[in-house]
Amino acid sequence: MSAETTTSAGIAQTDSTPVDPTLVGTTATKAERRGVRVPWRFIGGRVAFYVFTLWAAITINFFIPRLMKGDAVSSYMARSQGQLTPDAEKALRLLFGVDKSVPLWQQYLDYWNMLLHGNLGVSISTGMAPVGDAIASALPWTLGLVGFATVVSFLIGTALGAVIGWRRGGRLDVFIPITTFLGTIPYFWLGLIFIAIFSTTLGWFPAGHAYELGVDPGWNADFISQVLSHGALPMATIVVVSLGGWVLGMRNMMLTVLDEDYITVAQAKGMPDRRVLWRYAARNAVLPQIQSFALALGFIVSGTIVMEMVFSYPGIGLLLLNATNAKDYALMQGIFLVLVLAVLIANIIADIAYAILDPRTRQTEA
């Protein structure tokens, strides 16, 4: 063997002169040997951006109710029909942080002080209960129903879209117009159709609520079966309406990815179609879907207000509607704050996952 071969075989130990990188492996090979590089600079920049966004959202959340006509105390006083004294009204304004005698900047600082101590205020529409307790009682219902339905629709729609894109021009293309049409139907309209067919006519599922009256909530078979049966129609409504977007988005991305050179090379090497589909094509096509999925997860907290109205489901969306009708600004602010936090956290997680899965994103750190 020549000296060049010996050098290339033991270059790290015997020779310190520059060597052509093609003799010792590509950059991709080195990166694979090092493992996944965590893009700390990219993550730090995104976190700083989201911290600023959180401050701006909380500030807007503070000022918008105070710029609206009327407030929760005035609405409560009107419903009490003059039974409360002016002193009681002043005490309520101090309690809700809307006392006009206190400067606006002081109210803003007091609002931040309350948030930092985990105090979201008092809800006037729920019998003066703490806002945190009101949200905590409604949030699990929305997370359980809308969250599970969103995950199911994402998984089914993404997998179906990948297969349809891989077999473009085949019989599976018929699902595209069907799912797209179903996606244009409003939640409330499809929910009413499901109630008319599966509840009123067939009697398979209950028409509304989370469980029957008289059933004690708890981890028992009776209560769990009630929750599952009552949540079947709302979940089916969400899955059917949102499925079309996932299918169409994944299918379009698959059509773009399948024209890439690395797909052609993988097929030319004789790799099985299933491996090329899921390990190469779908893995790259799903990246934009992750960002959309993160946004969908963030908006789970807000629930589907119209859907919860149709099915009288005790989620966060119905709670927000009741708070809006009662001008319960403290509860509205608490729900908006939880919504903003959910969206920001979901986007941060999506950015981190995107940066880890896509090497091109990690190059922004260099």
From TrEMBL:
GO terms for biological process: transmembrane transport. The chain crosses the membrane at residues 43-64, 141-166, 187-207, 227-248, 293-314, 334-357. PROSITE patterns: ABC_TM1. It is found in: Cell membrane; Membrane. It is a multi-pass membrane protein. Residues 139-350 form the ABC transmembrane type-1 domain. It comes from the Bacteria. Residues 1-26 are annotated as: Disordered. GO terms for cellular component: plasma membrane. InterPro entries: MetI-like (IPR000515), MetI-like_sf (IPR035906). Belongs to the binding-protein-dependent transport system permease family. This is Peptide/nickel transport system permease protein. It comes from Leifsonia shinshuensis.
